[in-house]
Amino acid sequence: MAATLSVSLSLDPKHNNWCYLYPNTTHFKPHQALPVYLHKPDRHTFKSFFSHSHSHSSSSPSPTVPNSYLEDPLRTGRFLSNQELEKLKFLENFGYFQELTTGSMWVRVMMPEEMDGTVGLLAESFVESMLLPAGYVSLLKFLVKQYLVERRAVMPHAVTLIGFYRGEEEEEELAGTVEVCFDKMGASTSPPTPTPPKNSPYVCNMTVKKQLRRRGIGWHLLKASEELISQMNSSKEVYLHCRMVDAAPFSMYKKAGYEVVKTDSILVYLLLQRRKHLMCKKLPVLKKPSELYLSNTEEERPL
């Protein structure tokens, strides 16, 4: 049997917690999956993910990383080309680490066993931002999980990243998440307006845990997304949306080098939506993987 979900959901966040989730029709057919089996890698620490990232300290403690997501049950249900397999292997080894003034954080691809934690983070964020009763969390968790399952099915053309934060003398915790679409095959069939180019990288569904905001976590989720795009995609133009009323995120995006290329018309109010900016940044060609961020790592960031 095929479980079919047809949802049109526009989530309109406030404050420093901004996300856009637009699930579309999902046809999830496990019995049609065509699995790709690769060798099972040894368990290793997150430090092995830092080969593409900048770190201020090599002595920072590191959490263990779950087994390869290439073996997880949420397979794509399609044959993968050699190029796609190489990209999947690259995603598995991608990591971004950064020392902050209040602790440290690292960003990597979400593993299947971490989906429920990510779902909870997004659902709680949406309920808060839309001023909904807490009882809506369960419903939103169902919708968000269906959406994440759908997005995992298009890997390596899109990916969900998660960020972990460790304060001084504290254990690491899930701090935020962001989604990155690399090309047309990973683009949503129902993107928010103004519509970004489907074949260009696109950053969306970014959120930071409420208790951990204003520590630079949002800034480095964005930086990790840009670094991954620089290494995964030949196109150096990356797009994102920002609501006109969200002053703090807009300021952060401007500081990061994004410029407004188009803005919603006032007609979106008829759809009970906030007006949004479509913003774009041209990423420089990097000589070194983390060259883009070396000049900004010590600055205090608002999110």
UniProtKB/TrEMBL annotation:
Pfam families: Acetyltransf_1 (PF00583). CDD domains: NAT_SF. GO terms for molecular function: acyltransferase activity, transferring groups other than amino-acyl groups. Gene3D superfamilies: 3.40.630.30. Coiled coil: none annotated. Residues 105-284 form the N-acetyltransferase domain. Transmembrane segments: none annotated. This is N-acetyltransferase domain-containing protein.
